[in-house]
Write a structure and sequence with these properties.
Layout lengths: L2 H9 L5 E3 L2 E3 L2 H14 L2 E11 L2 E9 L9 H12 L10 E7 L5
Antiparallel strand pairs: 1-2, 3-4, 3-5
Amino acid sequence: MNVEELLKKKYSKFASANIGDELLFRHDIALQIIEDCKKLNSIIAKMVFWQRKDDEAIEVNSTNYSAIDTGKNSSKDTIEAASKLIENKLPDDAEYVSFFLEDNVSF
């Protein structure tokens, strides 16, 4: 089981909404997911930020850490960037965030 599947299984009951297979989380749960990523030495490849409009979740912004998700420090670098970005709240008045995670396979 890869890290994304592992954390999806652990946190699916805490998702506030979903878009297909993509789970959307509030800020407090997102911080816990980032902390687990740190413990598992995984890579946060991307985060997507969402707002609720009527009965729909609308994407308002996203990150793409492809420039820093390779190499020896990729786990540390992506986790630090994600932590800093959502340290106090989700950006752009977003209500939810979804994650795209990768296993760290660098040696």
